[in-house]
Amino acid sequence: MTDDLERRLAAGTPGAALDLNRLRAAITHRAAEEGLIDVAYGAYDSPIGALTVMVSDRGLVRVSYPGDGIAAQLEELADRVSPRILEAAALTDQVRRQLDEYFDGTRRSFDVKIDWRLVRGFAREVLAVTSAIPFGSVSTYGEVAARAGSPRAYRAAGNALGSNPIPIVVPCHRVLHAGGGLGGYSGGLDRKRYLLNLEEAS
Amino acid sequence: MHLPPFETLIDAHAAELHRFLVGCVGPTEAEDCLQETFMSALRAYPRLHDADHLRAWLYTIAQRKATDVIRRMARRPTRVLDGVEPVARSAPEPIDDGLWQQVRALPAKQRAAVTHRFVLDLAYAEIGSRMGISEEAARQNVSAGLRRLRREVTS
């Protein structure tokens, strides 16, 4: 039985529009002040596409290329770092500023803390070695494998580089085939070529 | 156990929680109340042990925040000395016929159940799951709330 009272209740309440953007901004602001954001992320418009920069309380944890599937990456971070994840571009400013300088040609090495929690085992060794390849120079998969402690594991080294969660900053684009071929790149070979040219020209 | 990124909880539930809170505390207080709900949720989030009932968990927090607001409003003086009207905290509430003020005056469980039923148009099983009570208890809370409202509307 629906009586008049129920009809009036079902007619709803007045003035119920929610400004979702304002709510999100307010929550992000307060969460940052209280130190409640364990992973912050923000968009970064680079010359090689719209990147997403993800920063944890320990440092830079991921740089994503467009089309990487941000939602799935955030789910992974929720499991492996913390589910307290909010979009908070301001908290990624240090990295975004250094990326600006890098793409301008005025920065030759990145000075940011790295959170390695997405990388395990041999891959971590490979990426540590890769981090030491200087701006403007290149190495090979075999060389990187050797320096990481397993000279014959160049294929594993290739896999580790291919799944580098922090491209550009951990410069996997500086690793090429021994014969001089470009090899692979998670962001596509055009981007690898762009980065190598940028460093050559600077 | 997998908890989704907190951000996705805001996207998925903010609009509906807001409608629920407008029903519970009125449009002026609802947005603050929603913000407090998400802040409390964010503080507790990593310690949460049950990822299966995130929505029910958020509604439990929202209901608690709504009760806090209603208690605070009840304590707030409506008139200060010498008959000077208190300054309005924010924009005045849009005109409603007083029915929702009476909903807000219901006991917390009845208020939440009535709001779920009529603002969000939910079935009793769903109301129960969001309030952490049985379907039957949800039905009884709605029914008791309606009986009380009818008494007050006609009196």
Q: Helices and strands in order, then pairings?
A:
The complex is a heterodimer of chains A (202) and B (155).
Chain A lengths: L3 H7 L9 H14 L5 E8 L2 E8 L2 E6 L5 H11 L4 E3 L5 H12 L16 H11 L7 E2 H7 L6 H9 L12 E2 L12 H13 L1
Parallel strand pairs in A: 1-4, 5-6
Antiparallel strand pairs in A: 1-2, 2-3
Helix pairs in contact in A: 5-7, 6-7
Chain B lengths: L5 H20 L1 H18 L9 H22 L23 H6 L3 H11 L5 H8 L3 H20 L1
Helix pairs in contact in B: 1-2, 1-3, 1-5, 2-3, 5-6, 5-7, 6-7
Describe the overall structure:
The complex is a heterodimer of chains A (202) and B (155). By secondary structure, chain A is an alpha/beta fold. Chain A has two domains: 22-104, Methylated DNA-protein cysteine methyltransferase domain (Double Stranded RNA Binding Domain); 121-201, Winged helix-like DNA-binding domain superfamily/Winged helix DNA-binding domain (Arc Repressor Mutant, subunit A), CATH 1.10.10.10. Helix content of chain A is 42%, strand content 14%. Chain A is built from eight helices and six strands; from the N terminus they run ααβββαβααβααβα. In chain A, helix 5 (121-131) packs across helix 7 (154-162) and helix 6 (141-147) crosses helix 7 (154-162). The longest helix of chain A is centred in the first third of the chain and has 14 residues, at 20-33. Chain A starts with a helix and ends with a helix. In chain A, 35% of the residues are buried. The model of chain A has no long low-confidence stretch (mean pLDDT 93). Chain B is mostly helical and 155 residues long. Chain B contains seven helices and no strands. At the A-B interface, helix 1, helix 2, helix 3 and strand 4 of A face helix 1, helix 2, helix 4, helix 5 and helix 7 of B.
Instruction: Report the end-to-end length of chain A measured between terminal Cα atoms.
Output: 78 Å
Shape of chain B: globular
Count of discrete domains of chain B: 1
What would you report as the Rg of chain B, rounded to the nearest angstrom?
Answer: 17 Å
CATH class of chain B: Mainly Alpha
Total strand segments of chain B: 0
| Poorly predicted parts of chain A | none
Largest interface: pair, residues per side: A-B, 36 and 43 residues
Predict the CATH topology of the largest domain in chain A: Double Stranded RNA Binding Domain
